[in-house]
TrEMBL record:
Protein name: Transglycosylase
Subcellular location: Cell membrane
Lineage: Bacteria, Bacillati, Actinomycetota, Actinomycetes, Pseudonocardiales
Membrane-crossing residue ranges in chain numbering: 6-24, 31-54, 66-85
Record membrane topology: Multi-pass membrane protein
Family: Belongs to the UPF0410 family.
Superkingdom, taxonomy of origin: Bacteria
Naturally occurring in which organism (per UniProt): Prauserella alba
Length: 93
């Protein structure tokens, strides 16, 4: 992967993180940087899943890959919110 590919994956990951936060149920009390980090990781993981299942390289826009990335991001944001929520409760006591 070239540097331009990595940079574009990071930019896409930022958007994926924001979409994942919108799709995730409930209110997420996590920092925006954590949402963006989850989105970047979800972009890479979603692409790996799409390639593993064989639907990453299609003609035109890869909608299934994008949906996979957003679902992975929503799960990641929900997990991060659950973990961060537990940490905040300990600090407040």
């Amino acid at each position: 992967m070239e540097i331009s590919g990595i940079i574009s994956a990071i930019v896409v990951g930022l958007v994926i993180g924001a979409l994942g936060r919108l799709v995730a149920p409930g209110k997420q009390k996590i920092a925006i940087w954590l949402t963006l980090l989850v989105g970047i990781v979800a972009a890479f993981v979603g692409t790996a899943i799409a390639r593993g299942l064989g639907y990453a390289d299609t003609d035109g826009w890869d909608w299934l890959e994008l949906i996979t990335q957003v679902v992975v991001a929503a799960v990641g944001v929900s997990l991060a919110a659950g973990i961060a929520g537990k940490d905040r409760k300990r600090v407040e006591r």
